Amino acid sequence: MERLQKVIAQAGIASRRKAEDLIREGKVKVNGKVVTELGTKVSPNDRVEVNEIQIEREEPVYLLFYKPRGVISTVKDEKGRKAVTDFFPEIKERIFPVGRLDYDTSGLLLLTNDGDFANLLMHPRSEIEKVYVAKTEGIPQREDLRKLERGIKLEDGKTAPARVKLLSSERKKQTAIIEMSIHEGRNRQVRRMFDAIGYPVSKLKRERYAFLTLGNLRPGEMRELTPHEVKQLRALAMQSNSKKS
């Protein structure tokens, strides 16, 4: 038996919080009867309807994907560009990306059909660490990197402190390879931070998400997360949330 709002979230209909709103508003039925009590539990044999449409009870799916450049982090794209879900035609569950990577950014991206899990990881309080490797036009000086470490003022506010490390530089081509660790998830954040100090990013890759790495995956390949990895991610996010409560 599982809580009704969790079943709705896992079906990809809405986040658990939104599912709770739907229940309160009388838009959810269990076995043909309207249910408004949030503590209601249902079994796999119960028929659940949201807005008069029966939901499909899916098994939760958790994937680690190596997103290539030139792929959009969405379920589908109005402009006809390739989307991350196009790489999984064999998966029948309605998966979606956890957060996003820009069209021109490659690297580690999680996908799931578990809305509750996705919202937990993406919540600002969760502070999941994400590690990127950027190739910059120009070679930043140490003081430039310190600005990133202290936080950069962007149009949507000052960024949280980052961890930054110069991995290598090429004097002739005037380029540098820099590792940056952040826990925020603003739109195009890494690129905007480097733009702010005058060193545009020409290539960007997400190397790590929390304790997860790409391992031996090649662009366009994926693997399933183990139950232990899913449990660890939940624990990390919940621990961070509880510290800020």
Automatic annotation (TrEMBL):
Q: Which domain of life is it from?
A: Bacteria
**Enzyme Commission designation:** 5.4.99.-
The top EC class is isomerase
Cellular-component GO terms for this entry:
cytosol
Q: Does the keyword Ribonucleoprotein apply?
A: no
Q: Could you list this entry's UniProt keywords, alphabetically sorted.
A: Isomerase, RNA-binding
The UniProt GO MF terms for this protein read: RNA binding; rRNA pseudouridine synthase activity
Q: Where in the numbering of this chain does the RNA-binding S4 domain appear?
A: 2-65
GO terms in the biological process aspect are: enzyme-directed rRNA pseudouridine synthesis
Q: Which family does it belong to?
A: Belongs to the pseudouridine synthase RsuA family.
Name used for this protein in its record: Pseudouridine synthase
